[in-house]
């Protein structure tokens, strides 16, 4: 926009009567007071000096520019479709099979559009309140030439077909409905999408409204259906490390998909995804879609606690011998059964398992069984192990809890500091700037260009780059090897100093155990139990903080899971406490 060139236009504005004009990128005059755009455009004063061929070339360029400025007619759900497509492609590069995008996620998304009545039905929500023509059978009218293949016609699994049969108005074999909108909708000054304003105000009971965090819920549901080797905590960490599009995911939209105004509130995210929030949304989406029982989680599946426990024992540098104990705890608590582990959203009592949190909680329980974690016994056992290792340097070393604590604390503190620095340096501003209306576009782009230039100049002066190098994706955050001389690897250490023989089996020298939760909250309470650090030993706090950082979850969240496993493991103890409490109530009544 050029205010100097618009000064020669002296007519009053039809809306506010002001004489203050600017020029849009298309060459039309607009009022700087009320942003009213006129049909008048700036004329070329002297065309004699310009050859005809050049005029024709300029005209062609202007047409292309105007078409690009106008953009496609698109709906909010198509924006989410692009985000899901990019996330599926990112997961594919991380080693996930192509079936996740082409079959599983495709059908979940198709089912969502069908259930929310946005597509694959006779009367989509778009046509109920606006004048639009649905052209289902004529692809030549489509402006969606570069539509992602996420919604291509692929074979649907049985549950999609059965769901479609139950609804007679659903066309399962038809592609995404093509909607031809009126010019007034396209020229909307409030949003780039046709239904941005309506979507942001929509509150329909029983409909799960699509949001950017829910795209991750869709991704995790697809990973769970495929039984892939990516847990929810891994997925969120990959998002954090920028391997999966989430923050500013809209910048991957095609250039023709103009995004401004109300679209900003729908697609712009300015916070990191939270484990508990995404987990709840995953259950919410699965229930809304009426998904059937997921494929069984068996012992050879990555998500089984026995396999995940092995993975996390390796990650936190604990002895391999502990795996036998974790397997025993899993068996005794009954959390390794197929029916317990398999996700079934449509069951009467919907069974949901936090696979990674549960596995880590099992390890915490085993550490309590071995060392009690009361700030006393673990240090006494460490003294015994230290003396043995000094006398028998050539034998297999005994596991020393104190030494392990020192090694892990140093490593975790370093890792946490780098993580906090990376978060502090993260650039929330997208490369593709957002603006409130189409009129503000050029101003926003000029400001963004100025900011980028200033950043470049500043980085040159201080001899540093503002961007942080992207890490390579890995399932492990900590790597421990015997060859590493700087840090001790405890994988091969023995538990002989902690265990004792009892007949043909081994038992722990420690015969005591304290329960993380003495009394659980009532059923109407939102949480299982409360966690206050001051009530627990420093060793227990360190263990919880270590694993909480590993999974990027709240410490209280892990404490709850530990308490639930203890409840299953020590049923007798909890039943005794219940009887005591009931007796005391009876006494009080008398």
Automatic annotation (TrEMBL):
Residues 271-461 form the Rrn7/TAF1B C-terminal cyclin domain. One of its GO terms (molecular function) is RNA polymerase I core promoter sequence-specific DNA binding. Signal peptide: none annotated. One of its GO terms (biological process) is nucleolar large rRNA transcription by RNA polymerase I. Transmembrane segments: none annotated. InterPro entries: Rrn7_cyclin_C, Rrn7_cyclin_N, TAF1B/Rrn7, TF_Rrn7_Zf. It is found in: Nucleus, Nucleolus. It comes from the Eukaryota. Residues 80-254 form the Rrn7/TAF1B N-terminal cyclin domain. Residues 8-39 form the RRN7-type domain. It holds the Pfam family Zn_ribbon_RRN7. PANTHER family: TATA BOX-BINDING PROTEIN-ASSOCIATED FACTOR RNA POLYMERASE I SUBUNIT B (PTHR31576). Belongs to the RRN7/TAF1B family. This is TATA box-binding protein-associated factor RNA polymerase I subunit B. It comes from Diceros bicornis minor.
């Amino acid at each position: 926009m050029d205010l100097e060139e618009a000064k020669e236009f002296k007519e009053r504005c039809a809306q506010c009567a002001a004489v203050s004009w600017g020029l849009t990128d298309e060459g039309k005059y607009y009022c700087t007071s009320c942003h009213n755009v006129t049909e008048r455009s700036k004329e070329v004063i002297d065309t004699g000096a310009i050859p005809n061929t050049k005029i024709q070339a300029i005209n062609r360029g202007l047409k292309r520019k105007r078409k690009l400025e106008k953009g496609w007619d698109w709906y909010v759900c198509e924006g989410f479709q692009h985000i899901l497509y990019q996330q599926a492609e990112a997961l594919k590069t991380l080693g996930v099979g192509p079936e996740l995008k082409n079959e599983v996620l495709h059908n979940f998304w198709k089912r969502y559009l069908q259930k929310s009545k946005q597509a694959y039905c006779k009367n989509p929500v778009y046509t109920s309140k606006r004048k639009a023509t649905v052209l289902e059978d004529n692809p030549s009218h489509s402006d969606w030439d570069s539509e992602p293949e996420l919604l291509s016609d692929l074979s649907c699994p049985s549950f999609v077909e059965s769901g479609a049969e139950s609804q007679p108005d659903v066309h399962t074999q038809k592609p995404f409905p093509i909607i031809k909108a009126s010019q007034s909708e396209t020229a909307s000054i409030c949003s780039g999408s046709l239904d941005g304003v309506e979507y942001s105000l929509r509150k329909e009971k029983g409909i799960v409204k699509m949001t950017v965090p829910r795209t991750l819920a869709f991704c995790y549901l697809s990973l769970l259906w495929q039984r892939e080797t990516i847990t929810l905590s891994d997925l969120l960490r990959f998002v954090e490390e920028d391997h999966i599009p989430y923050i500013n995911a809209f910048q991957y939209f095609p250039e023709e998909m103009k995004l401004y105004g109300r679209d900003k509130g729908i697609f712009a995210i300015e916070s990191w995804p939270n484990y508990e929030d995404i987990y709840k949304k995953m259950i919410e989406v699965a229930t809304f879609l009426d998904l059937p029982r997921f494929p069984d989680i068996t012992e050879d599946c990555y998500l089984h606690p026995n396999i995940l426990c092995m993975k996390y024992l390796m990650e936190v540098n604990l002895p391999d011998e502990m795996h036998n104990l974790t397997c025993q705890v899993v068996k005794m608590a009954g959390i390794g059964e197929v029916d317990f582990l398999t996700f079934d959203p449509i069951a009467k009592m919907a069974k949901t398992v936090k696979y990674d949190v549960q596995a880590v909680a099992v390890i915490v329980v085993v550490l309590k069984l071995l060392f009690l974690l009361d700030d006393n016994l673990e240090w006494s056992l460490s003294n015994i192990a230290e003396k043995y290792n000094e006398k028998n340097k050539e034998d297999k070393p005994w596991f020393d809890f104190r030494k392990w604590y020192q090694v892990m604390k140093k490593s975790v503190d370093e890792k946490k500091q780098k993580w906090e620095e990376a978060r502090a340096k993260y650039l929330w501003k997208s490369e593709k700037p957002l603006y409130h209306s189409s009129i503000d576009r050029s101003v926003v782009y000029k400001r963004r260009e100025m900011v980028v230039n200033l950043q470049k100049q500043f980085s040159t002066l201080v001899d540093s780059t503002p961007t942080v190098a992207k890490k390579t994706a890995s399932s492990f955050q900590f790597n421990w090897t015997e060859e590493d001389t700087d840090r001790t690897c405890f994988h091969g250490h023995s538990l002989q100093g902690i265990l004792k023989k009892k007949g043909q089996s081994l038992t722990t020298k420690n015969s005591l155990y304290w329960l993380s939760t003495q009394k659980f909250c009532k059923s109407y309470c939102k949480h299982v139990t409360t966690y206050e650090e001051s009530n627990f030993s420093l060793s227990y706090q360190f263990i919880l903080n270590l694993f909480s950082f590993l999974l990027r979850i709240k410490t209280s969240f892990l404490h709850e899971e530990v308490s639930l496993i203890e409840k299953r493991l020590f049923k007798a103890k909890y039943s005794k406490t219940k009887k005591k409490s009931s007796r005391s109530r009876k006494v009080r009544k008398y």
